[in-house]
Amino acid sequence: MPLEIERKFLLTAFTPPETAVRRRIEQGYIAIKDDGTEVRLRRIGDSCVLGVKRATAGAAPVRVEVERELGEREFDELWPATAGARLVKDRYTVESAGVTVDVDVYRGELAGLLTAEVEFGSEEAAEAFTPPDWFGAEITGVPAYKNQNLAVRGLPES
User: Looking at 29, 92, 106, 145, which residue is catalytic?
Assistant: First the structure.
């Protein structure tokens, strides 16, 4: 079963370097269960994906993730099911501290929110990671900052 092992951080500012790759992400949730399991639709450029994520029995940075490519028509047929549970963000992929960092700059109602995510090949690598100085507070596993909750509830109160 494919695992997603990642840590997530708040950022206070971000200026994309010229080498950063930017991708617009439109993401909506068809289903969100109380245990954190989610069924998500995502469009990144011309790529459309249906994904399912669920928590594992272990700690926060590890989740099971299964994704399937969809055609544009399939995506368009399913997209209305995500009404009220959507978000848009620009993702910049940069290299920092020897790892690949995905910086998300949220748009629309979530404008002003900046986050950084780092994915790892193992739990040990995730635990050993020392965030660079430009990262802010760690929000890995904080429910209010999960994308599914941001899409439904908006920005958390400070």
Answer: 29
- In the chain, the amino acid numbered 130 is T
Measured in degrees and rounded to the nearest 5, phi and psi for residue 133 equal -60, -25
Range 136-158 burial, b when 16+ CB lie within 10 A, else e: eeebbeeeebbbbbbbeeeeeee
pLDDT tens-digit readout, 99-156: 999 999 999 999 999 999 999 999 899 999 999 999 999 999 899 999 999 999 999 9
Q: Indicate if 92 belongs to the active site.
A: no
List domains and CATH numbers for the chain. 3-153 (2.40.320.10)
Q: How many residues does the chain have?
A: 158
Given phi > 0 = left and psi -120 to 50 = alpha, else beta, which region is 97? left
Q: Which residues contact 158 (CB under 8 A, 6 or more apart)?
A: none
* Rounded Cα distance, 125 and 129, in Å: 6
pLDDT digits (tens, 9 = 90+) for 37-73: 899 999 999 999 999 988 776 656 678 889 999 999 9
Q: With left for phi above 0 and alpha for psi between -120 and 50, is residue 30 left, alpha or beta?
A: alpha
Rounded Cα–Cα distance for residues 97 and 119 (Å): 13
